[in-house]
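sorry for the late reply, my laptop died twice this morning and i had to redo everyting from scratch. anyway the thing you sent over, i finally got around to it. pasting the sequence first so we're on the same page, its 322 residues, then the predicted structure underneath. double check i copied it right bc i was rushing
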Amino acid sequence: MYRVLITNAVPADALEPLVGVAQVIQGPSGGPLMPREAVLRLAPELDGIINQGELIVDGQLLDAAPRLKIVANVATGVDNLDLDLMARRGVWATNVPDAFVASTADCTLALILNLLRMITAGDHYVRSGKWRDDGFQPGNWDGTLLADKTLGIIGYGRIGQAVARRARAFDMRVIYHNRTRADDPAYRALDDLLAEADIVSLHTPLTASTRHLIDASRFAQMKSNAFFINMARGPVVREEALVDALQTGKIAGAALDVFEFEPEVHPALLELKNVLLTPHIGGGTRESRRAARHLCAENVAAVLQAMLPITPVNCPDSSACD
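ok and here's the structure:
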C-alpha cells in the first residue's frame, strides 16, 4: 500500500479520501510540526506528503524520496515548493486556492477594526484595573471610523477581492493594485495607491518579484496617518523598514499576521503600542482547515490512483496539461 505523510496530526475525517488508498503517517499532535530531519528519515518510503506550507521541497528532499509522486500544500501559497524541479522529477504539486479565502478576508477586517478602534488595547486596560481607577474619560479611546476611508489593497486575487467586498459593507472606498494593469477606475499604480490609501492591506503571494516589495521607500510614500496590514507573507515586507516607519511616525500603525523571519518577530515590534500582532492565524478556522486538508487528501488520492490532481500548480505530465 502507498504511504503518505501529513506533517501534523489531524482529525481522521479530513483524510477520508485516502482510506483504502494509502497508509497515512501523521506528525506530532498538539505542538510543532514534524521537523525536516524527521521527514527526511521517512522520505525513502513516502509516495505522498501533505504539509502546512512549511516544508521546503527542494533537491535534497526529492533525492531522499525516489517514490514521491505528489506534495499537497495545506495552503494557498507555494513558495516552499520548487515547482520546476518537482515537475522535472515527475512530482505533482498542489495547493488549496479557495479554502482559506473567506477566513483570511474575515481576519483582515478583524485586524483593521481592532487596530483602528484599539480593541485589544482597551481589553488590556480594563483587565489591568486602570479603568476602575481612572473612570470614564470621553475622548481618550476615540478610534478611527471606517466609513469613507480609502482601503488600498495590494494583490487583488481571490482574497483581495473578498476583503474588498467586506470593506464596502463598512462604506469604505476601495482601490487596488495588481501585477496586471486593469482598465478599472479603482486600479492604481502601486506608488499612487500608497499615497492615496488611509489603510494599506497586503495580499500578494511571495515570489522573487514581491520579496521586500514594501521597503523604506514604499513606507515613505504612505500618509503619516495611514495604517498598514500584512496578511500576505512576511518577506514581502522589509521588517526593519516597517519598524523605522512606525518608530518615526511615517505611518500611524500596523497589524501583522505574518513576519519576515517567523516565528521570530523583530523585538521592537513587541514594544510598540501602535502595532497589533497575531501568530499567522489568518486562514485558521475549523471550517477552512478541514476543507483544505480534505482537498489535499483528494489530490493525493487522485495521483496515487493514476488520475490528475484537482488543483495542480505544476505539470509533471505535459500531455495532461495541454
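The CA atoms of residues 94 and 311 lie 5 Å apart.
thats about all i looked at so far, will dig more tmrw
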